[in-house]
Write a structure and sequence with these properties.
With 244 residues, the protein is α/β, with parallel strands linked by helices. Helix content is 31%, strand content 20%. It folds into 2 domains: 15-194, Glucose Oxidase, domain 1, CATH 3.50.30.40; 198-243, no CATH class.
Length: 244
């Protein structure tokens, strides 16, 4: 196994880009990414479970589990230099932690103590295709969590932690450190780091267009030619928005 980095690398997300993404639904972002050729961006499994009423944005800090192996998945491993505890101490402020738990939901990867420490370190949110434990305590930490459920057994009952800040697969989606995560009521999506600015710009334009389309629907305009907009509709939209 390769040694995980001891220090965090993600840079803070540009405020203007973060604000634009925070104002954009994950539904819109998936459509924008689809137009850019990215189909696998919405993570299957993570749902808004704890303190997750707001749309949140942040750079990904990744963690990875593999199936439990009896000589490694032990309570003693929690004190190892390669442990979830060590990874938490490497988390930068404002990151969104993305944990690959392979969809296993019969062992909780984090409980109230670990999520409380993450909140104290300024972590924005936790996103995982696995489960957490100590659900009531996790709720009490105020850390926003998107996960696939809650389970009483500890992580080592079904998983072995192997590293952090490396590419992972969460909910069927590849996530790399420094990718950008947007999470809201529809779940969590990943924006590849190289596409973040383009997605933010296009998403703002898409949201503006769809708001205008909603107003047209309220006026009784039929859908054909309106959604998706044909050339005539686009021209009318541009003319009206330019005047305003």
């Amino acid at each position: 196994m390769t040694q995980s980095p001891a220090t965090p690398s993600p840079a803070h997300l540009d405020k203007a880009i973060a604000d634009a993404l925070r104002a954009t639904s994950t539904a819109t972002i998936t459509t924008v990414l689809l137009k850019m050729g990215i189909r696998r961006c919405w993570m299957r499994g993570p749902v808004p479970m704890f303190n997750a009423s707001d749309r949140l944005v942040g750079r990904a800090f990744t963690m990875r589990f593999v199936p439990a192996r009896e000589d490694l998945a032990t309570p003693e491993s929690w004190s190892s230099p390669r442990s979830t505890r060590a990874a938490i101490e490497a988390m930068p402020e404002d990151c969104i932690v993305v944990v690959d738990a392979m969809g296993i939901t019969d062992a909780g990867i984090f409980g109230d103590i670990l999520t409380a420490r993450m909140k104290k370190r300024g972590v924005t949110a936790l996103v995982t295709d696995g489960a957490v434990r100590d659900a009531l305590g996790v709720e009490g930490t105020d850390l926003p969590v998107w996960c696939a459920g809650a389970a009483a057994p500890p992580s080592v009952a079904g998983l072995t932690f192997v590293g952090w800040q490396e590419p992972v697969g969460c909910g069927g989606v590849a996530v790399y450190p420094d990718d950008v995560i947007v999470a809201d009521g529809d779940g969590a999506v990943v924006i590849p780091a190289a596409l973040v600015e383009a997605v933010a710009n296009e998403a703002v334009a898409q949201e503006s267009l769809e708001l205008w389309i909603m107003r047209e629907i309220e006026k009784g305009v039929p859908l054909p030619g309106l959604y998706p907009p044909n050339a005539e509709t686009k021209a009318r939209y541009e003319a009206e928005t330019t005047r305003s």
